[in-house]
Specification:
- This protein is α+β, with helices and mostly antiparallel strands and 585 residues long.
- It has 3 domains: 74-224, PAS domain (Beta-Lactamase), CATH 3.30.450.20; 230-344, Beta-Lactamase (2-Layer Sandwich); 433-584, 2-Layer Sandwich (Alpha-Beta Plaits), CATH 3.30.70.270.
- The chain has helices at residues 9-72, 74-82, 97-110, 178-183, 229-236, 283-292, 297-300, 341-344, 346-361, 363-392, 407-423, 433-443, 466-473, 475-492, 517-531, 565-579; strands at 117-122, 127-132, 138-143, 151-155, 163-167, 190-191, 195-197, 202-212, 218-227, 245-249, 255-258, 264-266, 272-274, 306-311, 317-326, 332-340, 456-464, 498-503, 506-512, 550-558.
- It is globular, with a radius of gyration of 32 Å.
- Residues 1-22 have low confidence and may be disordered.
Length: 585
């Protein structure tokens, strides 16, 4: 009988132990490598997200500053329309009632809203004001004797006869009003301090300028009110992180507008007062104010947003972007965007945790595919970083070609959407003013080893007959007309040419690589011909009637005519104005 073989379990166990002893150090090494790669990813991601967030915040601060400029700049023209420089004020307004009424109507048509109320008071205690109710009606407020009460009249047109409505019960003396007393002290126009209009329960500011008599002596003051409600609405609608904040602030910390905060508050006795950084009870707002109040206001005023990293006093870091906004009448506000640093890095923290968790659970899998995965992530992060850096340098059309479905892809998609939102006109789809500034800065910047950049042509386009179209067919049709005009112009251009809307009915077109006068004239002729054709997208136009708009075009060639963006725009604007007929201005 053959004996059975003796089993040798110790040899099998020894072989298994040997394999484990060989694998264990390798597994530990992979774990360390995974941790190191995770930390490297965290550092790279943090730097990229911080850079991207800073640029987005700067753009939002610039958008707020542009909104302030659009909202406030028309007030000077309103005052000028009421009393042009050099026009003398009568000693008795009864001598020029109809002329003053007509100028007040025209003035309230220029920048309405917000300048729908313009008024004048003189040394004799007389006064006339006009409050526009809509495009065809207004309320005239008249006081022809110092001791009489102010009367209200209805106006149904620019030359309509006033229809009496009522008389005030309290004596109104323009000479006792703050706007009058401030303006009579200086030859320049001034802004009054911001105040609460208790009628509308919102903030209002007044711009005023003194007017001289025929003998050159002070005779009266013309003024216009601006409600700041639209600025507050604009700031409140900005998209920020859940704990982020945007606001407009005065040098003393008073809030003009704020997201997540009111700009007024009720006191214990039920009265309204201004909201300030000090009484807001908001640590973030107070920390931002403490940071920016120490900076010299005049020295910091400029065209570029600034950034800073500060502490809110509760051991939380806050990243801010701010932009000073000033003008010749004494306006001195600061547009601020503030976001807690932890909000900025929240996505990075989540992704880091995921990386470490996967590394601990699947170290062996990470050994096989970790290097390849990280290489892809690193390449994509580098691509995103390079794209962010190039956009920050003004190359706003830099492509971002990341095909990912994770946080990095989401970050790239969000950056793409934010870039489009920041640099695209929402009505027409053309580039906006901010995009144009970046594009021109890039085009006029010589490349390495070059003395000048590639030539291009800049066309400044202003539509003719657009205001009559708006007045007759309505603002909705005006928007449709602007959209159709943009589409027609784009169809005439090459793919790499640029069309940007400056605002209203003004456009700028950039023809890349064009330096020949003949080429420019050919494009101008095509544009003229295209826009002389009737518009087809307007609504409610009677059958058989057609609506057209023409255009006036000015041009400047780089580098023949100028070497910087502002000079090119100015020259093209002046050239456009020369081509615009008197009836089209």
């Amino acid at each position: 009988m053959t004996p059975s073989p003796t089993p040798a379990p110790s040899k099998a166990r020894g072989s298994t132990s040997l394999k484990l002893s060989l694998i264990l150090p390798f597994v530990v090494l992979i774990a360390l490598l995974t941790a190191a790669l995770g930390m490297l990813w965290y550092w790279t991601g943090s730097q990229t997200v911080a850079t991207l967030s800073e640029q987005v915040m700067e753009e939002k601060a610039e958008r707020i500053a542009q909104a302030i400029d659009r909202h406030m700049h028309g007030s000077a023209a309103v005052l000028e329309a009421t009393f042009p420089q050099g026009m003398h004020a009568p000693l008795d307004i009864r001598d020029e009632l109809q002329a003053l009424q007509t100028r007040l109507w025209i003035a309230t048509s220029l920048h309405n809203p917000p300048n729908d109320y313009v008024y004048y008071g003189n040394q004799a205690g007389q006064g006339m004001g006009l409050k526009r109710l809509d495009s065809t009606q207004a309320q005239l407020r008249l006081k022809t004797y110092a001791e009489e009460m102010r009367s209200y009249y209805r106006l149904d047109g620019i030359n309509a006869h006033p229809v009496f409505e009522s008389t005030e019960t309290k004596l109104f003396d323009p000479r006792q009003r703050p706007w009058y007393q401030l303006a009579q002290k200086t030859p320049a126009s001034i802004w009054t301090p911001v105040y609460i209009d208790f009628g509308i329960k919102d903030l209002v500011i007044t711009r005023a300028r003194r007017v001289l008599s025929a003998s050159g002596q002070f005779e009266g003051v013309v003024a216009t009110d601006i409600s700041l409600a639209a600025l507050n609405s604009f700031v409140s609608q900005l998209q920020l992180t859940p704990n982020g904040r945007a606001f407009i602030m005065e040098p003393g910390g008073e809030l003009i507008a704020a997201s997540g905060l009111s700009n007024t508050r009720a006191t214990a006795d039920g009265k309204l007062e201004r909201m300030t950084a000090a009484n807001s009870g908001d640590a973030l707002t107070l920390a931002v104010y403490e940071e920016i109040k120490t900076l010299p206001h005049s020295a910091e005023a400029g065209t570029q947003p600034r950034t800073a990293l500060l502490d809110d006093g509760q051991h939380h870091q806050i990243r801010i972007a701010y932009r000073r906004v000033t003008d010749s009448a004494g306006l001195e506000w600061t547009a601020v965007v503030a976001v807690p640093h932890q909000d900025i890095l929240a996505g990075v923290y989540r992704h880091m945790a995921m990386v470490f968790g996967l590394g601990l659970v699947a170290l062996i899998v990470a050994t096989l595919i970790g290097t390849r995965i990280f290489g892809t992530v690193a390449n994509d992060m580098r691509s995103l970083t390079r794209a962010v850096r190039r956009v920050g340098q003004g190359e706003i059309d830099t492509p971002i070609a990341l095909q990912r479905r994770d946080e990095i892809g989401e970050l790239a998609d969000n950056f793409q959407r934010m870039r489009n939102s920041l640099f695209t006109d929402p009505l027409t789809g053309a580039s906006n003013r901010s995009a144009l500034q970046h594009i021109l800065a890039t085009l006029t910047r010589p490349g390495a080893g070059q003395t000048s950049a590639t030539p291009f042509a800049l066309l400044f386009v202003d539509l003719n007959r657009f205001k009559p179209l708006n007045d007759r067919w309505g603002h909705d049709n005006g928007d449709l007309a602007l959209t159709e005009v943009t589409l027609r112009l784009r169809q005439l251009l090459r793919e790499d040419d640029v069309i940007a809307r400056l605002g209203g009915d003004e456009f700028v077109i950039i023809l890349r690589g064009v330096s020949d006068e003949e080429q420019v004239q050919a494009v101008r002729a095509k544009m003229q011909a295209s826009l002389e054709q009737p518009l087809t997208t307007l609504q409610g136009i009677p059958e058989g009637e057609s609506v057209t708009v023409g255009l006036s075009v000015g041009q400047a060639l780089y580098p023949r005519d100028a070497q910087d963006a502002q000079s090119l725009l100015k020259l093209a604007d002046q050239d456009m104005y020369r081509h615009k007929g008197p009836s089209e201005r």
